[in-house]
Amino acid sequence: MATITRLAWLGLYKDLQRASSEFKQFGYREFAKRRVREYFELNRKETDQQKLAALYQKGQETLKVIHRQAAIGDLFPASKLIIEQPTPAH
Amino acid sequence: LQEHKCVLDSCRYLENEGFKVTYLPVQKNGIIDLKKLEEAITEKTSIVSVMFVNNEIGVIQPIKEIGALCRAKRVQFHTDAAQAVGKVPVNVNDMNIDLMSISGHKVYGPKGVGALYVRRRPRVRIEAQMSGGGQERGLRSGTVPTPLVVGLGKACQICKEEMQMDYEHVSRLAKRLIDKVSSNVEQIIRNGDPEKTYPGCVNLSFAYVEGESLLMALKDVALSSGSACTSASLEPSYVLRAIGTDEDLAHSSIRFGLGRFTTEAEVDYTATKCIKEALRLREMSPLWEMVQEGIDLKSIQWTQH
């Protein structure tokens, strides 16, 4: 079984982060970005090739889920949260 | 006396039907006294119901100990785990839970679906809520809504996988919120036990600030002065009164809900706004002025009866 290169992992991470940024809803967007990072940090020291392969697979599937959910989110209008709006001068 | 409104109302209904219901008080920290529970269980007791995590102050009850006690006394044990499932580890076998209520939207699942765990051995006999086709051994008749059911299952699966991450995130946010608010405003009291608590539910009392006014001032943040389930009345929360919070403090409490989708930026915004508004309201408050002058408010007789 071929090992997954560092480049491939980095690519996956970047794809996931980029996909997460597609969420229009602030909460979901921040959550997705944070959770992706947490999963990568959690498994940073994993060396078992089989587990790594499973994780890579899971990452690919998550990528699809994020793309799909972000697209579904786009179907409905989302208003910006109060903290996203430029602060008016008091 | 620290159950969810819906359980309390069911108890009241049972009382009308002729059942005897004993309501147990809780200690100051919001946790049930096991000794009192043991004394309250009589030969005629058929069921004990204790909330797993309280919805207003977030305290976690010693469910495992209560379960063991109920098993030893051969009493059935129901727990309302709507706030616990998916957030803290729950095991019906370890904890000797016979009946457990679960709610879909509390585990980030769909609204309008829930579940009741019923132990098969030792058998729990329950009356069906509605009669009909007799599905699920006659306990729950009718067709289930597939999307909701799948949603509940998937939500639970995700919660189980990511419980640790969610818990750490929520703890971090709760600490950030409490530290920030209490370091900037004096006389902030956190209701409920500081240790045995689910951090996603922070209940703070802003002394000498009226809770509802603070809510009005924070109208761009979704907060509540109690739980949504008791919002029909402006009375102070019975949960807070049960833990012995003074009437005035119970009136000035705000409940902050934190979850998976809450972010640091949102917490910061809320905390900053809270501090600003609490200080502003105190500035206007005659009570606060009197306290600053050193008058003990409890010594004042407000009305003449």
From TrEMBL, chain A:
Family note: Belongs to the complex I LYR family.
InterPro entries, per database record: Complex1_LYR_dom, Complex1_LYR_LYRM4, ISC_assembly_LYR
Swiss-Prot/TrEMBL GO biological process terms: iron-sulfur cluster assembly
One Pfam match: Complex1_LYR
Gene Ontology, cellular component aspect: L-cysteine desulfurase complex; mitochondrion
Identification of the protein by name: Complex 1 LYR protein domain-containing protein
Stretches assigned to the Complex 1 LYR protein domain: 9-64
Automatic annotation (TrEMBL), chain B:
SUPFAM superfamilies documented for this protein: PLP-dependent transferases
Any one annotated GO CC term: nucleus
MF GO annotations: cysteine desulfurase activity; iron-sulfur cluster binding; metal ion binding
InterPro entries, A to Z: Aminotrans_V_dom, Aminotrans_V_PyrdxlP_BS, PyrdxlP-dep_Trfase, PyrdxlP-dep_Trfase_major, PyrdxlP-dep_Trfase_small
EC number: 2.8.1.7
One Pfam family, short name: Aminotran_5
Requisite cofactors: pyridoxal 5'-phosphate
GO BP annotation list: iron-sulfur cluster assembly
Signal peptide residue numbers: none
Keywords from the UniProt entry: Iron, Iron-sulfur, Metal-binding, Pyridoxal phosphate
Ranges that cross the membrane: none
Aminotransferase class V domain location: 3-269
PROSITE patterns, A to Z: AA_TRANSFER_CLASS_5
Record-stated family: Belongs to the class-V pyridoxal-phosphate-dependent aminotransferase family. NifS/IscS subfamily.
Name of the protein described by the UniProt record: cysteine desulfurase
Lineage of origin: Eukaryota, Metazoa, Ecdysozoa, Nematoda, Chromadorea
